[in-house]
Amino acid sequence: MENLNEILSLDSKAKTRMVKKGEILQTEGSYSSLAFYVKKGLLRSYTIDEKGKEHIFMFASEGWLMADIESQEFDQPAELFIDCLEDSELVVFDRSCFKIATLTESQLKKNAHLLARRTAVLQRRVIMLMSASARKRYNRFLETYPELPDRVPQRMIASYLGVTPQALSTIRGKIARQK
Amino acid sequence: MENLNEILSLDSKAKTRMVKKGEILQTEGSYSSLAFYVKKGLLRSYTIDEKGKEHIFMFASEGWLMADIESQEFDQPAELFIDCLEDSELVVFDRSCFKIATLTESQLKKNAHLLARRTAVLQRRVIMLMSASARKRYNRFLETYPELPDRVPQRMIASYLGVTPQALSTIRGKIARQK
DNA sequence: CTCATTTGTTAATCTAGGTGAATGCTTTGT
DNA sequence: ACAAAGCATTCACCTAGATTAACAAATGAG
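^ Those are the sequences you sent over. The predicted structure of the assembly is below.
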């Protein structure tokens, strides 16, 4: 991820803010979407389907940027909820800060890298979801985010992987037993 | 989608090229990745898993840009195959044309906008794959790409949706019968 | 035109993962 | 400190979709 100084240069009005575990930073359907750079702590973004079930879209720990860039760029209401999984220290950016039309050239370049990187992550995620079993997705998750399993409740890892907590528990049991 | 003139302004060296149905434009692992703007015709990008099964990542018909932006951005070998589903007329861009460092401000803005749009599509796709049944995904596909069902073989639609051709056939049978 | 390949359909299994419920364990709030 | 809520695990089901296979229709190459 870009370092903090580069990120900060995107918006001189950005402010540091402390948030408590459980605090909700963005609600689906809201227009006041912001972007959050995580200095310390852990965020997640997710949707809630018509049956009330949560589907975690991504996590953001130290050094990552959490934003509903898509809804910001197209001036649509937020599609995602964003909330806080640990007491965190965030740098908060105004949504205008990611509106492409308003950015300077050097900001655009940073932004383009962030976007390209994000797109690459999503591309791999789509391919995994289409082609790999729950067990393979879990193993890939462990490789990709080695620091998260100790900080994120298992039911949320399950949600990120697109399986139930029970299924993940069974997978973990099998992996542990066969070693 | 941006109109052709805007796209063309990205690269004065871009050339128009006619390609035949079945022609392969990019192979997984190759470094010579290009980008293709579709003036006429239809392309697809896909991976092949360890069992030899194809997984279609996206389609691009008239007015869309097909590119393995991810591998271009990170100078990695291509992750995707790209081939041609109909005789097509394409504008071919060199990969350098999407290397961020070399672009002008107005090109960067178009590029960023294309990426944001692509990311939004992928975001919805991930959420669909995690939370919706095959039937719902098919209905969503029909709404989103109304022109494709008549041009794309069903087995490829099935591959895009992440189900087997048999499963899609059954879904279509049920939908037709219950009307 | 004709034979071969690819495509779509249907049907009979099989299985990964979902659902629901019971059991302990750990957090949380007061 | 205690009750209450949330969490992970296990088990007994159930169901969506995979697999395999057979067959008919469409496509295509020589």
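The radius of gyration of chain B is 17 Å. The mean pLDDT of chain B is 85.

Shout if you want it in another format.
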